[in-house]
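User: My collaborator sent over this chain with a note saying "see what the structure looks like." That's all I know about it. Can you take a look?
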Amino acid sequence: MPTLVHAFDWPDRVVVGTVGMPGSRTFYLQAREGTRTAAVALEKEQSAVLAETIDRVLDELMDDSDNKWSVPADVPAELVDDDPLDLPVEEEFRTGSMRLTWDPRTAQVVVEAFPIVDVDDLDPDEEEPEPDEALLVRMPVGTARAFVQRTRAVVQSGRPQCPRCGRPIDPDGHECVLPDEE
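Assistant: Without extra context I'll predict from the sequence alone. Here is the result:
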């Protein structure tokens, strides 16, 4: 069966956002092009690593003397997006692996997300199975900078950290366990 690809070549919007309260939030990578929207669930850590990796790629492109594209060092003001996720948030799949590439033909960062693979469903004779679904989002460099800024803010907006042990403090209390007490 061919892979169902939710492709967004020039999205009107691409963001990471959350649903739920800190401590029990679900993170989503959401893209919109016209009236079409797709969202895939991510882990908080996946969101953070994606933002850091995109930022590093953009910085490397800025420093590359052979790069003919103008890459902004800061987020263009018109691309700042602090709005909530588009509703309703309908999860296409929960993300397992991701791939990040640079397309020099279009000056876009390309993000591909693939669903979690259940190892029990794998055929031992097959090398690498084709995923059932994928999300493919292509971001111009300014949009990518805005994506990084927003994603970092979303990741950091969770529960406050305990100043003693560094673990998250829940709204209903916190049992502080220092690393040497574990």
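A starting point for your reply to your collaborator: The chain has a mean pLDDT of 90.
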